[in-house]
Amino acid sequence: MLKDLWKSAAAEGNQPLHPRPLPTKGERGESLRAFHKSTKRTGAPIRIWSPCPPCLASSNTEITENLSDLCVKSVPATEGTEKNLPSRGSTSRVPRVTSWLFVALCGIFLFACRLDMHIQPKYVPYDASTFFADGRSERPEVPGTVAHGHLRTDELLYTGKLNGEPADVFPFPITRQNLERGRERYNIYCSPCHDYTGSGNGLVVQRGFPPPPSYHIDRLVKAPAGHFFDVMTNGFGMMYSYASRVTPEDRWAIVAYIRALQLSQNATLEDVPAKAREHLTEQAK
Fold it and tell me: How far, in Å, are 74, 165, 192 from residue 255 at the CA level?
């Protein structure tokens, strides 16, 4: 059959040859890769067209198509077949598009990494300023300015002083409820150093911390109530301030309980009420 087709093609040699245009290298590669992917799972062979001289020489479309069927080679669809297929060629735009996309993403990331959140146009404490005449970034308080909700006009309540001197009075009447509250706050914040009796031998001291003075020494027994409030507010010696931990009202309750502790350690029988004194006398017998 091939010989007959060859003779027919030769008989038409006087006619101008118009061979069918062959696919380009890139087109062959794309089609073969598509065939490979479609037959990879089933194991079907890939049909690769390899043109022969009769196919190239014939101008008869029908003859050329018949010859092309004879020029097909069967290649098994294996794992290595795709690697041996023709490459896409330099005309493929996929790598070029990928490169431009990568460049665009890099540009986006570059412009997105701004330092405004780290280097902000602001003043930090004690920065110099060329804007204000005095050269300071901090501005002085406007006379008469009061923070909203913090108007502390009661000097005794918030400072423990009257006319700048420690006061020996309380800013509110002391009740049993105040003493109970003072004992609770004292046991939480004061007893670790001052112990539960105020003698200055708490658990922290027993483990090596310098002991605070006893509340029962003559100097502190005669000290005004405002002295204890001022120490709790501003700290004294090794003791730091408790102003951020204990409210002013609770500080005064602790002062009242310290007075009760001092009284308990130095009380006499005459300080006991009459009814309670009779009960104590009976217990002593």
Answer: 103, 17, 17
Last residue of one domain, picked from the residues 65, 84, 103: 84
Are 73 and 169 in the same domain? no
The residue whose two tokens read 């022969």 is 52
- Token representation of residue 27: 């087109």
pTM to 2 decimal places? 0.49
**Average pLDDT value for residue range 182-195:** 96
Residue span of the structural domain in which 73 resides: 2-84
Please list, in sequence order, all residues whose beta carbon lies within 8 angstroms of the beta carbon of residue 218, skipping any fewer than 6 positions away.
none
| Domain match, 171 and 266 both | yes
Mean pLDDT of 9-19: 50
Q: Are residues 280 and 159 both part of a single domain?
A: yes
Q: Which of 84, 109, 136 is the last residue of a domain?
A: 84
The mean per-residue pLDDT over the stretch 175-199 comes to 96
Tell me if 285 sits within 8 A of 279, measured CB to CB.
no
With 60 as the cut, is the pLDDT of residue 43 above it? no
Rounded-to-integer distance, Cα 217 and Cα 257, Å: 16
Q: What is the pLDDT of residue 96?
A: 78
Averaged pLDDT for residues 20-46: 55
